[in-house]
């Protein structure tokens, strides 16, 4: 009986040590994965990246060279490309079936989905000079709206209009804004002049290669993008 008790104690101690080693290995791997993801092709630059590796035990996943799930958040991103592109301020990604490289850092995610946020300040910077883009509240159906304001000069007179614009996806990486209606359409040339300033398309800068834009939704904080992809490259 005493030998059995000692055996159980030894097993318990070994289990505790294994769990401790497993959790330490996870923490080290998360820090290394964070740096690797920041260097992924397509990401301009991320001010802060956090990684949460799911599943237990971690060490057996490493032995199999594949991680079941990783949650990653990138924020404070800065786009290197200038003109005609939108900077993503935050990405929350859920990565699955993540294959590891020889040094056990993340290489490719078999599947990935998540959300990204583009602020109204960034949308305003991406628009023409003098155009302001902001939150337009919600309609009667609860859908978010975008408010766009701009001024133009037509026939010697200056007109300023604020309109509600629809936001949509145009292609795999492009956001489109188009005014639902321009007030004062009876003034010759006014609608065309206004639309020439406030209707625009911009590509998204900062998404990892392999992620595609699927849906856009206006929120009080900015335009939320739903992204999804397969075989998403996570490192250099």
Give a short overview.
Helix content is 25%, strand content 45%.
Strands side by side in the biggest sheet: 1-2-4-5-12-11
Determine the fraction of residues in helical runs and give it as a percent range.
25-40%
Biggest pleated sheet: 6 strands, antiparallel
Give the overall form. elongated
Question: What does the oligomeric state look like here?
Answer: single chain
- Uncertain regions spanning at least 5 consecutive residues: 10-19
Distance between the termini: 57 Å
Pattern of helices and strands = HEHEEEEHEEEEHEEE
Number of helices: 4
Structural class by helix and strand composition: alpha+beta
> Mean pLDDT score, rounded?
75
Radius of gyration: 25 Å
- The proportion of strand residues reads over 45%
The total count of strands amounts to: 12
Written overview of the protein:
This protein is α+β, with helices and mostly antiparallel strands. The chain is 25% helix and 45% strand. The protein is built from four helices and twelve strands. The strands form two sheets. It has a six-stranded antiparallel beta sheet with strand order 1-2-4-5-12-11. The chain has a six-stranded mixed beta sheet with strand order 3-10-9-8-7-6. The longest helix has 37 residues, at 2-38. The protein starts with a helix and ends with a strand. Residues 10-19 have low confidence and may be disordered.
